[in-house]
Design a protein that fits this description.
Layout: H1 2-22, E1 42-44, H2 47-69, E2 82-87, H3 103-106, E3 108-109, E4 115-118, E5 122-125, H4 131-142, E6 151-157, E7 162-167, E8 173-176, H5 184-190, E9 198-207, E10 210-214, H6 216-222, E11 236-241, E12 246-251, E13 257-260, H7 268-274, E14 283-292, E15 300-304, H8 309-317, E16 325-330, H9 332-358
Parallel strand pairs: 1-15, 7-11, 12-16
Antiparallel strand pairs: 2-3, 2-6, 4-5, 7-8, 9-10, 9-11, 12-13, 14-15, 14-16
Helix pairs in contact: 1-9
């Protein structure tokens, strides 16, 4: 009896030690009760969730449209811009460019405080005005000295506003914003176009502390004008690197590893197909998880039960995002088989030691 108790105790200890080794990374269990402070809630992938995601996407497109629709398309003069003001029939008021001076050198520059000086008019605050508004105010003030003045005002050097294009374009750098509105497509074209490493659908625009995700595929392939936003002063256009647009599939699949997102479209079912599908012998089809934003403050976990055909239909409609992690859980039988496989050497050693003790 003492021998049986001793062997049983050793087996229990071995099982507890092996469980510590096997459990992490092999299975994922959801808590019976959700503690909102300490546990991240797992969201099941259902038709309702897919509809919610579609509404969120439509709302984001609508937000882009509303933001861009409220933009001012007329160019507003800023500090550093150079204006050329011509008063017809009064050449004494127009500084001649001459053969060695271009219009930019001969024009009137707006100073850092936003003022412009012009004869008979003095200092005029012109920042924030359009060319037409500057023409009106100078015409009004100079009419005291000149009867029925005819003025022409134009910007000959755009220096006050600029956008920045970085990332996977051939010629990244600063792009001045002129009186002709510059869109994202214009900025990319002026930068030499996309490189071979560029992610066609991965463009982020930073404005006033907020980042907008732009879908170039929708803009180029489907003529979605809502994606071709007009740039403003200080905007940063960042064309993403294609190598970072991947998801990672781990767990009970045939070929675990990264899967690249091509043209911004990759569903959960397609990602599983790229790695050869789930293992028919060791996977638990009811335990497929998508972990999103694991490095952020609010990661999300989605759960798919694919033991029935309807599950794969949902998987085909669930869109993945870059850096998502897909985990396929292990079937219960496979877990027990692995425990036994790892225990057999220990049990054999225990048996040999027990025989030696008996002899």
């Amino acid at each position: 009896m003492k021998r049986i108790v001793t062997l049983t105790g050793v087996l229990a200890l071995a099982l507890s030690m092996q469980a510590c080794v096997i459990a992490p990374g092999m299975t994922m269990t959801e808590p019976a009760e959700i503690d909102e402070e300490n546990v991240i809630q797992v969201q099941p992938i259902t038709l309702e969730l897919l509809k919610q995601k579609e509404v969120e996407r439509e709302n984001s497109v609508r937000e882009l449209t509303e933001v861009f629709a409220s933009e001012v398309t007329s160019y507003e003069i800023g500090a550093g811009d150079v204006l050329q003001i011509t008063v017809w029939d009064h050449p004494e008021l127009t500084i001649p460019a001459g053969s060695f001076r271009d219009a930019e050198e001969a024009g009137q520059k707006v100073d850092e405080e936003g003022f412009l000086y012009y004869p008979y008019v003095g200092l005029v605050k012109v920042t924030g005005m359009t060319v037409g508004q500057v023409r009106e105010i100078i015409t009004e003030r100079i009419s005291t000295y000149i009867q029925d003045p005819q003025l022409d005002v134009r910007v000959v050097a755009f220096r006050s506003k600029r956008a920045y294009v970085v990332g996977e374009v051939k010629n990244p750098g600063i792009r001045p914003i002129v009186d002709i509105p510059m869109t994202i497509a214009d900025a990319i074209s002026l930068s030499g176009g996309l490189t071979e490493r560029a992610f066609k659908s991965g463009v982020n625009v930073s404005r006033n502390g907020k980042v907008y995700a732009i879908d170039l595929k929708a803009m180029y392939d489907y003529a979605d004008a809502s994606q071709n936003m007009t740039l403003q002063h200080g905007d940063i256009v960042n064309v993403l690197d294609r190598s970072q647009q991947k998801v990672f599939v781990i767990g009970e699949v045939r070929k675990p590893g990264p899967v690249e997102i091509i043209n911004s479209q990759l569903s959960l079912s397609a990602a599983l197909g790229e790695v050869g599908g789930v293992s028919q012998t060791t996977a638990n089809p009811s335990g497929i998880y998508v972990i999103r934003g694991s490095s952020g403050d609010n990661p999300e976990i989605y759960h798919l039960d694919a033991q029935f055909a309807t599950g794969m239909v949902l998987a085909d409609r669930f869109a993945l995002e870059a850096q998502d992690v897909i985990f396929v859980d292990t079937a219960g039988v496979s877990q027990w088989t692995r425990v036994i496989t790892q225990l057999l050497p220990s049990v054999s050693i225990i048996g040999v030691a027990d025989n030696i003790t008996s002899n």
